[in-house]
Amino acid sequence: MNEEEEIQFPGLDPALWQGASDRRLSRRDLLRYAGAGAGAVGLSAFLAACGTSNNSGSSGGTGANAVGSTSWWAKQKLHHQVDFANWPYYIDTSHGKHPSLEQFTNQTGIKVTYSEPIQDNTSFFQKIKPALQAGQSTGYDIVVLTNNSPVFSQIIQAGWVIPIDHSKMPNFDKYASGLVKNPSYDPGNKYSMAWQSGYTAMAYNTKFIKENITSVQSLFDPKYKGKIGMMSDPQELGSFGLLATGKQPATSTPADWQAAANKLQAQKSLVRSYYDQSYISALKNEDTWISMVWSGDIFQANLSGFKDLKLVIPQEGAMFWTDNMMIPKGAANPLDAMTLMDYVYKPAVQAEIEDYNNYVCPVPAARPIIAHKLKDPTVANSPTVFPDAQMQSLSRTYYQYKNNQSLLQWNNLFLPIIQG
Predict the structure, then answer these.
(1) Alpha-carbon span 410 to 234, nearest angstrom
(2) Each residue of 138-150: pLDDT tens digit?
(3) pTM of the full predicted structure?
(4) Phi-psi sector, 2: left (phi>0), alpha (psi -120 to 50), beta
(5) N- to C-terminal Cα distance for the chain?
(6) β-pairing, 81-85 with 111-115?
(7) What was the pLDDT predicted at 154?
(8) Phi, psi of 324 (to 5 degrees)
């Protein structure tokens, strides 16, 4: 196999707008990466989940009639049913319903069974892996997986994702942001379409820190000893260590990883704790004054009254991640899935979803609709929801693991920092 073939781990009805923008609880942006805060047990579980013994090495096989080929897609029929698996609190919700999905059913006749079984990438993959290995339906036609998790690459390389039908992506082709078109983790969007994205960045409490924070180096400043929060996800932690040593995570080498680990080890005495999603509570409670953060959480914290928390996109850059819609092999309703996946790229639909989610919107044309139709300029004018050119220039890409060995090497360097 060549290098590219290596197995890698790594418009809505106005009636439905009414009341649909109720502020949701902060999304449970639970740990997305194997081993985070779980030590060797977590890593072992991940490697077991992502074992390669049954890999076919190619999603959908080969030949003119292979699953996901043009001829295969030409034979698919609508069944007027689609089963969509997503993360919790990640779609517009009003009075127990999802207006965007209600409108989709009204327009297409396709009923959506929407569920929220994904708490993290690895445990969800463990749940569906037996069905995928047996060539059976997982029970889902759309699943949402994160590009910075090795699960994303593994499920593709194992042959367990159906290549999507580009002839049925007119909305995506017309309206998708350049940040989610032809991404490095899925060239040509062969297997995935973005659901939402976000930044791993920094935030600080202006009540206690009066200087203007602009660099990741502030996380290593001794004057904030005991008030610094870092993430317990080794992928996020290691990536920030690389940024702090002047390296780009996507093109980093094992020698760069060692230097980043050394810098993070030297920082340990300054860190209050290595947090999972609870980092936001520590910031709100003023246990920490400066911390690594997920952009959407700080945006929502500001909306809910925590005005002293200031989000920072460091001059070194912020890690840009994307949760992606994918069609698992064996899906019972692939054409219905494609129809829904492209539907959410209509600007009016995406505006409804985005006004609820507040993460990075994959459809820039949703912005004027949010500003003028939904009358929510706070969301419409946020650079972390609709990144401008400067924000896009500061978007950094994660390292993509080529095999088990590189994954283990990374974890062996960064997990001890969290655990020790």
Answers:
(1) 8
(2) 999 999 999 988 8
(3) 0.80
(4) beta
(5) 39
(6) parallel
(7) 87
(8) -115, 135
Exposed/middle/buried for residue 279 (C-beta within 10 Å: 0-12, 13-18, 19+): buried
Q: What's the whole-number mean pLDDT along residues 281-290?
A: 97
Res 178 pLDDT > 80: yes
Task: Give residue for tokens 């689609």.
Answer: 82
Residue 62, pLDDT score: 58
Question: Could you tell me whether strands 290-294 and 309-312 are parallel, antiparallel, or unpaired per DSSP bridges?
Answer: unpaired
Q: What tokens appear for 60 in the block?
A: 């959908």
Token output for 188: 């040509």
Distance CA 298, CA 280 (A): 8
Q: Cα–Cα distance between 341 and 194 in angstroms, integer?
A: 9
- Give the containing element (helix H, strand E) for 114: strand 111-115
The answer to whether the CB of 79 falls within 8 A of the CB of 344 is no
Q: How far apart are CA 30 and CA 181, in angstroms?
A: 25
Amino acid at position 202, single letter: M
What's the one-letter identity of residue 367? R
Q: What share of the chain is helix, strand, coil (3-state, %, to 5)?
A: 40, 15, 45
